[in-house]
Write a structure and sequence with these properties.
Elements: H1 5-17, H2 22-29, H3 33-42, H4 47-57, H5 61-71, H6 80-88, H7 90-100, H8 105-111, H9 116-128, E1 132-135, E2 139-142, H10 155-168, H11 189-213
Antiparallel strand pairs: 1-2
Length: 246
């Protein structure tokens, strides 16, 4: 199987930490040095071989995986170009949403009109954009943080404001799982800061719930979107009644 760059780099760091060379590793695995070098350069090794290397290094697969995760920090935001690519192709944005939420290919094809070629093509695009890493079996490993955020006034935020916001609020919020609170009032600057902090806490709780429920099947989960916002604002219909300042 082909290993991710992060796993290979983590193996190399463990080798260096234990002052082991490829020649040393080859001797313990009863392989030639050239075979070991080729295995690392091509990132091609079976699970059994990977476990043998971990035994030589006296580490477990969980420890190796944790080290691999530390070796490359997940992206907290996407680049302008990455966001624009998602905006330009809604199917690509959907593929990212499904990948982030750990949908399996069988579930995707049971719910969406993607044949094997189309779904694979979308995952390849996301891989080439550097947003996911395409794994064996058409599994996508996100390279973003679980709670990554869209860029402020970036392509996705602008797209949401111009195209999606009206759609989001078009239907009534009268379902069992729906909530719409329209709140307004006057607060002190300290009160506004406190409320902003609470909104951040709600966002973090949402992220934690996503992580908790990620292992459930697609049939056991419901897609949910939250819009959390606050700003000093007066309805445009009130503007004619405002006294001009100055």
């Amino acid at each position: 199987m082909a290993l991710s760059l992060e796993l290979v780099d983590a193996l190399k760091r463990f080798l260096r930490a234990q002052d082991l060379t490829y020649r040393d590793l080859a001797g313990r695995l009863k392989l030639s040095e050239a075979a070991v070098k080729r295995m690392f350069s091509r990132r091609a090794m079976s699970l059994a071989r990977l476990e043998e290397i971990c035994d030589v290094l006296d580490i477990g697969l969980a420890e190796l995986s944790a080290e691999a995760g530390r070796g490359r920090a997940p992206m907290a935001t996407l680049s302008e170009a990455q966001e624009q690519a998602l905006v330009d192709e809604p199917a690509l944005l959907l593929a990212l949403f499904l990948t982030l939420n750990r949908w399996k290919q069988a579930d995707v094809q049971a719910h969406f009109n993607f044949d094997n070629a189309r779904w694979t093509g979308l995952l390849v695009r996301l891989d080439r954009l550097g947003i996911i890493e395409l794994m064996p079996g058409n599994r996508g490993r996100p390279l973003t943080a679980r709670n990554f955020r869209w860029r402020a006034d970036g392509p996705m935020e602008r797209y949401f404001r111009l195209k999606l916001l009206q759609d989001y609020f078009a239907d009534p919020f009268d379902g069992e799982q729906d909530v719409l609170l329209l709140l307004s009032g006057s607060l002190s600057p300290a009160g506004i800061r406190q409320l902003k902090q609470r909104l951040g806490e709600v966002a973090r709780e949402f992220d934690a719930l996503l992580a908790r429920d990620a292992a459930l099947t697609a049939q056991e989960r419901v897609g949910v979107s939250l819009v959390l916002a606050q700003k000093p604002w007066l309805l445009q219909l009130f503007q004619p009644y405002r006294r001009s300042q100055g």
